[in-house]
């Protein structure tokens, strides 16, 4: 009969290793929470099984009535939310007499789609009170709106975000990338959110849908020695001048497509235009000034490759600075803090 082994305590060296491994696991778990480690697919499976279907049905019905404009608005709303305090729906909060909120900062003045989020939230509050966060609704709405033209989901959305309780216009000004930014500034801005150069180039592809207002890019049409920005295609510059008129710098009423020739389609055509000098904003043209970024653009002109890479980049963005677990709140009204 074999003798049983005695359970001797591990030596000090082994205890040290066990302690270090445990500490590493705890640190990684804590760090991961800031980057969406606690988000998961079908988060509301038990607490509100209808959540994703409610958002999808409302968004698709609204996009069907406005297929050219609404997908761009809801995608931009998601982007602008995530770049200020992370993806916490702080962009939805209304200003009060004592505080100017993000949505009233200059970079957010042309945002839209708030009413779609309001409708989805109202239905979900009736079905599952105090359960589904505004932040998750924004993430789902962006995906569903962009996916409408394909008849299938372009990416999966992990859920479990909670809502922020702070919204400051000053933070929107400081954090949202400027359409006039150079590459160095853009790279630093994205890096501060844990996003790299590849993410910058791919997420810029969201400019394949939507419009830009003349006053935002007017400087590219006249503030250079030769008139227009020399990196801007001459024929395109002339077209923009004709559309915006002589007072482009003050023309915030006229909007032009960001991806001329394919303005309503979510596709790789943005990168085709970029190579031809037809990027609308200085921030678009800036991608060609960096060797790493420019090297990615040719591959991204392929539709399948762009959609696959966009899926990865937008999911990564959707994990930026998320609040999970006991952090933040579940706002009952997306426009206001809970009492």
Task: Explain what this protein looks like in three dimensions.
The protein is an all-alpha fold. Helices cover 46% and strands 2% of the residues. The protein has 15 helices and 2 strands. The chain has helices at 12-33, 51-65, 70-82, 114-127, 134-147, 169-175, 183-191, 197-203, 214-217, 219-222, 234-244, 269-275, 282-285, 291-300, 303-317; strands at residues 211-213, 255-257. The chain has a two-stranded antiparallel ribbon with strand order 1-2. Helix 8 (197-203) packs across helix 14. The longest helix is centred in the first third of the chain and has 22 residues, at 12-33. The termini are far apart. Residues 1-10 and 12-35 have low confidence and may be disordered.
Shape: globular
Rg measurement, Å = 23 Å
Characterize the main sheet. 2 strands, antiparallel
User: What is the mean pLDDT?
Assistant: 90
Overall structural class, as computed from helix and strand content, comes to mainly alpha
The percentage helix is 40-55%
In short:
The chain has 339 residues and is mostly helical. It has helices at 12-33, 51-65, 70-82, 114-127, 134-147, 169-175, 183-191, 197-203, 214-217, 219-222, 234-244, 269-275, 282-285, 291-300, 303-317; strands at 211-213, 255-257. It is 46% helix and 2% strand.
What is the fold's blueprint, element by element?
Elements: H1 12-33, H2 51-65, H3 70-82, H4 114-127, H5 134-147, H6 169-175, H7 183-191, H8 197-203, E1 211-213, H9 214-217, H10 219-222, H11 234-244, E2 255-257, H12 269-275, H13 282-285, H14 291-300, H15 303-317
Antiparallel strand pairs: 1-2
Helix pairs in contact: 2-4, 2-5, 3-5, 4-5, 8-14, 8-15
């Amino acid at each position: 009969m074999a003798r049983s082994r005695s359970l001797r305590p591990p030596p000090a060296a082994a205890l040290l290793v066990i302690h270090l491994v445990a500490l590493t696991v705890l640190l990684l778990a804590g760090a991961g929470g800031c980057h969406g480690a606690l988000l998961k697919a079908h988060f509301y499976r038990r607490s509100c099984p209808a959540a994703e279907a409610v958002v999808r049905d409302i968004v698709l019905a609204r996009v069907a009535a406005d297929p050219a404009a609404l997908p761009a608005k809801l995608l931009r709303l998601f982007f602008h939310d995530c770049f200020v305090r992370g993806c916490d729906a702080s962009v939805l909060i209304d200003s009060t007499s004592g505080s100017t909120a993000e949505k009233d900062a200059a970079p957010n003045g042309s945002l839209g789609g708030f009413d779609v989020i309001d409708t989805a939230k109202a239905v979900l509050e009736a079905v599952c009170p105090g359960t589904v966060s505004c932040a998750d609704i924004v993430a789902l709405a962006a995906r569903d709106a962009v996916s409408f033209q394909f008849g299938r989901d372009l990416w999966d959305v992990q859920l479990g975000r909670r809502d922020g309780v702070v919204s400051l216009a000053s933070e929107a000004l400081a954090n949202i990338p400027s359409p006039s930014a150079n590459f160095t500034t853009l790279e630093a801005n994205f890096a501060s959110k844990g996003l790299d150069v590849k993410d910058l180039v791919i997420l810029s592809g969201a400019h394949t849908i939507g419009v830009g207002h003349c006053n935002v890019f007017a400087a590219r049409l006249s503030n250079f020695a030769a008139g227009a920005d020399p990196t801007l295609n001459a024929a395109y510059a002339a077209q923009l001048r004709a559309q915006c008129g002589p007072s482009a710098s003050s023309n915030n009423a006229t909007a032009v497509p960001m991806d001329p020739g394919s303005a309503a389609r979510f596709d790789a055509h943005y990168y085709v235009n970029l190579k031809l000098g037809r990027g609308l904003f200085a921030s678009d043209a800036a991608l060609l000034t960096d060797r790493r970024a420019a090297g990615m653009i040719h591959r991204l002109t392929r539709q399948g490759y762009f959609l696959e890479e966009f899926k990865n980049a937008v999911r990564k963005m959707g994990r930026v600075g998320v609040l999970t677990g006991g952090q933040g709140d579940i706002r009952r009204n997306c426009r206001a803090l809970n009492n």
